[in-house]
């Protein structure tokens, strides 16, 4: 009887798992040696990395400096937005800035200023006219105007009033004449309110003439 030998296959060698370790101290020594050999190159590289990180953070947290919006995945850049804005209403906005700037410059020349007390007094007048603090807040919200913007408008207005003080004086005779000629409109108004109304009318008339004169003398250049 023949005996069959079983063929035995050699077993596959076991795979050795090697751990990858990072020797930080060795890396630090190598980096130090490399830096000592060429310090300017490594300084430049480090500066470049820091600048890239700083720009990335700036872009992320101050995106409005670069982007105005996103429409279905299409980015609208801030320069695009302001270019359109300048073409549509840039002249109007610029002229408003010109007016505020020239008034403040003229006031500075003549030593005219506005105190915090005067600003608060004007705010109180507005509140009383509209029906209280809440009514003023509501009016500001409807007009999309911040209280800081309103304060700036008040400063400009008061400066203009002071600069034109001699031309917008209201006499007692003018008050009495207004009450006599506008009996219906003057019903319920105090003399102080009538005086303020007449001052506002005179300011509107005189301001245009005065402003055109100082504007002609000013050097104004536009770049849009």
From TrEMBL:
Matching InterPro entries: PrsA_foldase (IPR050245), Trigger_fact/SurA_dom_sf (IPR027304)
Transmembrane spans: 41-61
SUPFAM superfamilies: Triger factor/SurA peptide-binding domain-like (SSF109998)
Domain of life: Bacteria
Keywords assigned by UniProt, alphabetized: Membrane, Transmembrane, Transmembrane helix
Keyword Acyltransferase applies: no
Any single Pfam family the record assigns to this protein: SurA_N_3
Tagged with keyword Transport: no
Protein name as catalogued: PpiC domain-containing protein
Native source organism of the sequence: Candidatus Woykebacteria bacterium RBG_16_43_9
Taxonomic path: Bacteria, Candidatus Woykeibacteriota
């Amino acid at each position: 009887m023949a005996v069959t030998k079983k063929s035995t296959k050699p077993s596959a060698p076991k795979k050795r798992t090697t751990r990858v370790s990072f020797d930080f101290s060795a890396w630090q020594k190598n980096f130090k040696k490399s830096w000592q050999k060429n310090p300017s190159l490594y300084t430049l590289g480090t500066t470049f990395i820091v600048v890239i990180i700083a720009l990335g953070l700036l872009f992320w947290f101050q995106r409005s400096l670069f982007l105005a919006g996103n429409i279905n995945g299409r980015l609208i850049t801030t320069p695009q937005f302001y270019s359109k804005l300048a073409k549509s209403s840039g002249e109007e906005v610029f002229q408003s800035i010109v007016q505020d700037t020239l008034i403040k410059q003229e006031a500075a020349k003549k030593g005219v200023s506005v105190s915090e007390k005067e600003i608060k007094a004007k705010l109180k007048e507005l509140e009383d006219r509209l029906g209280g603090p809440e009514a003023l807040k509501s009016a500001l919200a409807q007009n999309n105007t911040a209280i800081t913007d309103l304060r700036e408008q008040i400063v400009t207005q008061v400066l203009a009033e002071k600069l034109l003080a001699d031309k917008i004086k209201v006499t007692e005779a003018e008050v009495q004449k207004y009450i006599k000629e506008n009996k219906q409109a003057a019903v319920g108004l105090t003399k102080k309110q009538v005086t303020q109304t007449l001052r506002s009318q005179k300011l509107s008339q005189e301001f245009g003439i005065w402003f055109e004169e100082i504007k002609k003398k000013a050097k104004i250049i536009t770049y849009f």
